[in-house]
Design brief:
Blueprint: H1 2-17, E1 40-49, H2 62-75, E2 79-83, E3 90-100, E4 108-120, E5 125-127, E6 132-138, H3 146-170, H4 174-199, H5 202-211, H6 218-232, H7 235-244, H8 254-260, H9 268-274, H10 280-290, H11 299-307, H12 312-360, H13 367-385, H14 392-405
Parallel strand pairs: 1-2, 1-3
Antiparallel strand pairs: 3-4, 4-5, 4-6
Helix pairs in contact: 2-3, 4-5, 5-6, 10-12, 12-14, 13-14
């Protein structure tokens, strides 16, 4: 009978020290103390490998660790978006190289080692400088049940591991990640450009220009687009792509360039057609109201327009419409510059007000130094106003703001 009681006691002790197997929680593996200094405007796909699933006790599976990594990246917004499949700017592969877990005992320590590797669409890779290894110990004071301590040890080690990896990603690896993304874009652009040149049709070239609007190959792609359009010689396609890429107009044959210039619905070719059924004054009025941009017509261009059947008044209306469009663009630019100037003046005034407040808080005995400091600050501010963009009136406004914010007497 004594042996039976002894065996029962041993079993109970093992249950307490080890406990039954339950899964780890990905939520509890998300760290709470990550300091993020840099974020990236890219999407990233997370892949994990090396995890294990066991029937003998708590373990760390690929799915659980992937969920924890994804949740952590999303929590701290290190990337624009995080996915586990589909298309993304970058790919992050996290390999669980070692997961050492305790079996039983009072204090249970787990150890986890991972390797984090980023790659781009071109296959280039960067890795964390070394294997990231972390340990965590759960004591009886943390939990009485053994299986609970095992879970806490595994989750704690994983949490620390993810925290350290995120810190590296945000800090030391930040510049490398940006370079990796750029290298991937360049490789993808080159691949798409070669495809556009090889297939040499309008749809593929347009796809390249749409996907890579800032590519250094843009000019060459636009020339290829013009050649493809010339081969098809379809007036509707000319109109479509001139609307999308106005800069190709200069590459078209002279007569075609003139025929297709102007805004949608009021191109020269449209106006020529209108003359058959519409009064000249109505056409002129319609052109002037549109304020559309045509070309800075040369003498040869105007002669060609006359040969197409346009009257002097209509040609004059085209010239005036272009001048109005140019004026509107200049006004928009000036307005934007003025808004920028006013914003800078507002910021400068705020800084000057804060400086004045700080000066007023100086000790009474620092009177002479306070006045001298104020005068020096005012002189520096007035000198700085000479460099404020926006012309004479902006300079005047800056000087007025400085004098109101800084006293020198």
């Amino acid at each position: 009978m004594g042996r039976i009681y002894g065996l029962g006691f041993a079993i109970c002790l093992l249950v307490v020290l080890a406990g039954c197997s339950t899964g780890v929680s990905s939520v509890r593996m998300i760290p709470e103390d990550v300091v993020v200094t840099n974020r990236h405007p890219y999407s990233v796909m997370v892949i994990t490998s090396g995890g294990q699933e066991s029937m003998l006790g708590p373990d760390l599976s690929n799915e659980d660790f992937q969920s924890a990594v994804v949740g952590s990246l999303k929590k701290y917004n290190i990337f624009k978006s995080v996915v586990t499949d589909g298309i993304s700017d970058l790919r992050l592969e996290v390999v669980l190289q070692k997961v050492d877990k305790p079996s039983f005992g009072l204090d249970m320590t787990a150890s986890i080692a991972t390797k984090w590797t980023f790659s781009n669409v071109g296959g280039d890779k960067i890795e964390t400088s070394d294997i990231i290894t972390n340990t965590y110990t759960a004591t009886v004071g943390d939990a009485l049940i053994g299986q609970k301590r095992i879970l806490m040890a595994i989750e704690g080690a994983a949490r620390s591991n993810i925290r350290d990896a995120l810190m590296k990603t945000s800090n030391s690896l930040s510049g490398s990640i940006d370079e990796l993304k750029l290298a991937g874009e360049l490789k993808l652009a080159e691949k798409d450009f070669e495809k556009a040149l090889t297939e040499n049709n309008i749809v593929v070239i347009d796809s390249f220009l749409t996907k890579h609007p800032d590519s250094k190959r843009r000019d060459k792609a636009l020339s290829s687009l013009v050649n493809a359009l010339n081969r098809e010689n379809n007036i509707e396609k000319y109109k479509l792509y001139l609307t999308k890429y106005p800069e190709i107009g200069i590459q078209l044959p002279a007569k075609l360039r003139l025929s297709l210039c102007g805004p949608e619905g009021l191109r020269v070719i449209d106006i020529v057609a209108m003359q058959k059924n519409m009064n000249e004054k109505l056409i002129v009025s319609k052109i002037r109201i549109s304020k559309g941009r045509y070309y800075d017509f040369s003498v040869e261009d105007m002669s060609a327009l006359k040969k197409m059947g346009l009257t002097d008044d209509i040609v004059q209306a085209l010239i005036e419409s272009t001048e109005k469009a140019d004026t509107i663009d200049v006004e928009k630019k000036n307005k934007q510059e003025l808004n920028n100037t006013l914003r800078e003046l507002k910021n400068a005034q705020k800084e000057l007000a804060e400086s004045k407040k700080a000066q007023n808080q100086l000790p009474a005995g620092a009177g002479a130094n306070k006045i001298l400091g104020s005068c020096l600050k005012l002189t520096a501010a007035l000198n700085g106003c000479a460099y404020v963009p926006g012309g004479y009136f902006a300079k005047l406004a800056c000087e007025s703001a400085a004098k109101m914010s800084i006293t020198c007497d």
